[in-house]
Design a protein that fits this description.
alpha+beta; Immunoglobulin-like; five-stranded mixed beta sheet; four-stranded antiparallel beta sheet; 1 helix
Length: about 130
């Protein structure tokens, strides 16, 4: 009777050890250490005259960066898939993206997606949002 109890205990311990080992290494996988990501780059400009807009916040798939003095941004480590882009200027500047402008990007693992220039307008010049 004692041998059976001990055998069950050893087997249970071995199963627990295997589960901990698999959980610790992510259960196998490609060894990449995380989800696949890509990079998104672009430029933010002022629609009225085409000038670059520095200091604008750009978020893509949970990754946030800020444009440089030339209006350029690069968001690295963006999760793959179709991601929404959120552009936010300093509130004192009263700049917005025109309603209806699509702000999504397909992020591909290991690649840089270069966006066409994103133009901002004065909030006062923004047409009303299209009906839903």
């Amino acid at each position: 009777m004692m041998k059976t109890g001990r055998s069950v205990g050893v087997v249970a311990l071995a199963l627990i050890a295997a589960a901990v080992l698999l959980a610790g290494c992510g259960g196998g996988g490609d060894g990449g250490g995380g989800a696949a990501t890509g990079t998104v780059s672009g430029t933010i400009t002022y629609a009225a005259n085409g000038s670059a807009l520095g200091g604008v916040s750009v978020s893509v798939g949970g990754v946030t960066t800020t444009t440089d003095a030339q209006g350029r941004f690069t968001a690295r480590g963006v999760p793959t898939g179709t991601r929404t882009i959120v552009v936010t200027a300093d509130p004192s500047r009263d700049l917005v993206i025109p309603p209806g402008v699509p702000l999504t990007v397909d992020v591909v693992a290991g690649q840089t997606t270069q966006l066409p220039p994103i133009q901002m307008i004065d909030e006062a010049d923004a047409p009303p949002a299209p009906p839903a």
